[in-house]
Amino acid sequence: MLRYICKRVVVLFFVLVGVSLLTFGMVHLTPGDPAEILLRTEGIDATPQAVEELREKLGLNHPLPLQYRNWIGKVLRGDLGVSFETGLPVLQELKLRMPATLELTVAGTIVVLLVSLPLGLVSALFKNTFVDHLSRFFALLGASLPSFWLGLIMIYLLAVKYSLLPVMGRGSLAHLVLPSLTLGLGMSATYARLLRASMLEVLGQDFIQAARARGLRENTVLLGHAFKNALLPLVTAFGMSLGHLLGGTVIVETIFAWPGMGHYLVDSIFGRDYAVVQGYVLLMALIFVVINLLVDISYAFIDPRMRLGKKGAEG
């Protein structure tokens, strides 16, 4: 296990290097001069001399390879650079907004679990019945709706037409309802379908029939044997989805003016704040690959066959 973890850490390092190169290159290929945009934002006349002086101050006059070397050198020391717009360290800016993003991600995850697990289980246990068809219809509907469209529909129905919930900002629990539903409902549909397929496959295995033949109660067979074994593919997908949930907050935070990292990223893109965009993408890539590593390690605790190695699994 230790050797496997070491290999994954090495791969993780090369993935982050690739992400840093790709992000740095794409950011600097975007049209628009950050110095000129920053001057106009502050109400200063963007004369060629003023633009040139600001570019020199921000280090934008150096060749791209030198800019990348300077930036990645700071990153290796735990410094993501300084925001062009605020003049504050990028890491500090992201830390200020991270609690709001994590709050929204956790709430979206709770929505995913509360909706997908019952829906998938009921659909599998009542296969080809009206309940199953209804569950699959809602799952397909949820998977087909774009999150931004779903968010706008809920804003119209629950906030504008009936005034049941607030639309924008962060504060009370009521402010969290619409963003978390928008973030979690679409992914809930995917998980419900995945759990249904996994449960049906497990219920057809010989060890389930053997457990029933031993006289075990049906609840024990379903929850203690079938459900536990059906969770393995869900763990893989769930680990991947945590990264997607964090990334998906960009759209949701923008729609609901949620003061998180995603909303900050969008503002930074429009302001050509290179340091913020590069720092955000690199931080999210690190979180994503670490989550995937933890998911792989968790296999050994969910499926004992993973601990025995290939020979044990074959035996």
Tell me what the structure shows.
The chain is mainly α. The protein has a domain at 97-263: MetI-like (MetI-like fold, Orthogonal Bundle), CATH 1.10.3720.10. Helices cover 80% and strands 0% of the residues. The chain has helices spanning 2-29, 34-41, 48-58, 64-76, 90-125, 130-144, 147-161, 173-203, 206-213, 218-255, 261-270, 274-302, 305-314. The chain is flat and about 85 Å long. Mean pLDDT is 82; it is low at 310-315.
| Structure classification | mainly alpha
Major beta sheet, specifics? none
Order of helices and strands: HHHHHHHHHHHHH
Task: Please work out how many helical segments DSSP would assign.
Answer: 13
The overall pLDDT average reads: 82
Fill in the keyword field for this structure:
MetI-like fold, MetI-like, BPD_transp_1_N, cell membrane, 315 residues, flat, Nickel import system permease protein NikB, disordered C terminus, transmembrane helix, mainly alpha
Give a quick rundown of the structure:
The chain is an all-alpha fold and 315 residues long. It has a domain at 97-263: MetI-like (MetI-like fold).
Secondary structure blueprint with pairings:
Elements (H helix, E strand, L loop, with lengths): L1 H28 L4 H8 L6 H11 L5 H13 L13 H36 L4 H15 L2 H15 L11 H31 L2 H8 L4 H38 L5 H10 L3 H29 L2 H10 L1
